[in-house]
Amino acid sequence: MAKIEANTKALTFNENISLKAEIVKLGAKEVTVKLTATGGEVKNYRYINTATKNWNFDDPATEGKLALSDYWNIRETTERELVINRLKSDTEYSLFVLGLDAEGTPTRMVKCVYTPTLDIKIVLKDNPSWNTAKPSITGLPDPVPEYYSGPVFFDVTPTASCVKYFVYVDSKTKFMNKNPEELTKFIVTDGDAYEGAQKDLGFQYTPKDAL
């Protein structure tokens, strides 16, 4: 895919300030990036975080869009540490960042490329730790009435040894023919992560879902 180029020569940048974007923590669905400025004070930052394969602009064009705030998914922050979540594991991301000085003049952009990874240990039902870590689910009808269509709610209560759990709801065809490792990776990657007890988690059910 050809990258879209742009001429940013007409833009004015604060060349005295240098930025550094450093990954301090990288998980399966979340990254923490520390932003450091030297040579001057940065009041706030603009950034774009995107899957690399979905980004059609070269670096100069991206720098111009950040400097002009000329793109729909540009974010702005005063924080010196970015926490970006809801990422997909095994997907390469590009983070583009520039700063703004006291007069609103942009610095030069820095780029950070990273790939969230999923490192999991599968525990099967015959392992003693299965029952000690397995959360309790209540309120979910079993089975769901044959012709029911509407919202379904349930509560989740984790055990003392369960520090985090993931919830993913879909039709059973999504889970067919997957071995335990594939299934676990699928749920952790696409599901929602929770800590502690949760009440009234819900989803919309239709008969075709056949949970």
Automatic annotation (TrEMBL):
Keywords: Lipoprotein. The keyword Lipoprotein applies. This is Lipoprotein.
